[in-house]
Automatic annotation (TrEMBL):
It comes from Metabacillus sediminilitoris. This is MFS transporter. Its main location: membrane. The keyword Membrane applies. Coiled coil: none annotated. The lineage of its organism: Bacteria, Bacillati, Bacillota, Bacilli, Bacillales.
């Protein structure tokens, strides 16, 4: 595959993989740690998840601006170095057994994480051509699925063998590797600074607000982009629920004595499903419209989540989760290949900067509601699955009604632009104007 000949893409991809691994493994182990030491206070595990999503509220208006105005390579690399340093502080906080200090460090580390992916995503867009976007999205999803299969399992295994401190050590090493990979990339200046050189003295509240506003207006004026971005808000609800509900399901219903292992099996089933779905999606992406790879899988996913609420057997639960993962694979490929085509490179950071805040806001609201409702108001976890399934069903119907028309309008616009460019190059009368 030609995309593997692009060394910068390969390095950036693995840098993103290690960066994500550096966060997820430690987070998963820490959730197990809290459930073990505070089993009668499940809200602690939910609060820990909130520490990963709430920082978005503080930095959401600036992450995209930083990715578009400053050197994207340096932004991504420095995020890794800073998180490595914060991980050392996290190790010390755990050694002191100070849970409030642990939460504080997790909060700050998560805040820094928010700056990484808009910068990294923008760099990837700058080193690939449009024909490679969907292919890159498929590869990213497949390798992320492999990481998901083994990453959470490794987190559980590390916690069960060498404890929470071992998991934090893995976090530290992962961030260091990611930073070194990014430093070794040789990326052209046009991809690193598409808007030209920007000086710190020009970085102020007024300029930040102006760029932030430009990102919002760009999304609102592009109806197709606005609809896709709205979808990320809904996916944030799913991410929030899936980050904690399976663990609660195993802990309080299906397997109280072995919930750590079965919670990791959930991630393994979902990861293998994503891997399978990503493989299928990569093969069929050229044969279907992007919206077709979104509407039907989202609809099927909503039905499957309903079934998760009904099942009372671990084996059936895991099989359903595998099928859900298979449905999610094509969705991620469709969005990952579609977004770079409709977003101008100069604004990719600001658009990407909006996606994470919307997802994290939805995730934070979901986790907050779960912490408030379960188990004081809603005693059965099943009803939480039903609510999530209803939301996803509504989204699938909304996309079925809007995406086909918007997709057709976008394609017609692209054809007009292409024909005008050809006419300008070939017609001597036009060239002489």
């Amino acid at each position: 595959m030609k995309i593997f000949r692009n060394r910068n893409f390969v390095k950036l991809f693995f840098a993103a993989l290690f960066s994500q691994m550096g966060t997820t493994i430690g987070n998963m182990a820490f959730a197990f740690y809290l459930l073990d030491h505070f089993s009668h206070q499940p809200a602690y595990a939910t609060i820990a998840e909130l520490m990963y999503s709430l920082p978005t509220v503080l930095v959401f208006f600036i992450v995209g601006v930083v990715a578009d105005r400053f050197d994207r390579k340096k932004v991504a690399e420095n995020c890794d170095w800073i998180r490595a340093g914060l991980t050392v502080l996290l190790f010390g906080a755990l050694y002191l057994n100070s849970i409030p200090l642990v939460f504080l460090v997790l909060f700050i580390r998560s805040s820094v994480t928010k700056f990484f992916f808009p910068a990294e995503n923008s760099l990837v867009q700058g080193i690939l051509n449009k024909e490679q976007y969907a292919q890159a999205a498929g590869l990213n999803q497949m390798l992320f699925s492999i990481f998901m299969v083994f990453g959470v399992g490794i987190g559980a295994a590390i916690y069960k063998t060498i404890g929470i401190h071992g998991a934090v050590l893995v976090d530290f090493v992962s961030f260091i590797i990611s930073a070194l990979l990014i430093r070794s990339c040789k990326i052209p200046q046009s991809a690193r600074l598409p808007n030209g050189t920007f000086k710190w003295k020009d970085f102020n509240i007024k300029s930040t607000f102006h760029d932030f506003k430009a990102g919002i207006l760009y999304i609102i004026k592009n109806r197709l982009l606005a609809v896709l971005v709205f979808g990320f808000f809904i996916f944030g609800i799913v991410n929030g629920a899936f980050s904690i509900l399976p663990m609660f399901t195993m802990k309080y219903e299906l397997s109280p004595d072995n919930y750590e292992w079965y919670a990791s099996f959930f991630a393994i089933s979902l990861g293998f499903g994503l891997l399978t779905g990503s493989g299928i999606g990569t093969l069929i992406a050229s044969k279907f419209k992007p919206y077709q790879l979104m509407v039907y899988p989202i609809f099927i996913t909503s039905l499957l989540i309903f079934l998760l609420g009904y099942t009372n057997k671990v084996s059936i639960f895991l099989v359903i989760v595998f099928i859900i993962g298979t449905c999610l694979g094509p969705i991620n490929i469709a969005i990952g290949g579609w977004m770079p085509k409709i977003v101008h490179p100069k604004l990719m950071g600001r658009v990407s900067g909006w996606i994470d805040p919307l997802m994290m806001f939805a995730q934070s609201v979901t986790l907050g509601l779960i912490a408030l409702l379960f188990p004081k108001i809603i005693e059965k976890i099943d009803y939480l699955y039903y609510g999530m399934a209803l939301i996803i069903l509504i989204v699938s119907l909304f996309y079925a009604l809007t995406l086909p028309k918007l997709s057709q309008a976008f394609e017609e616009k692209e054809k007009r632009i292409y024909n005008n460019r050809r006419a300008t190059k070939t017609d001597p009368k036009i060239n002489s104007l």
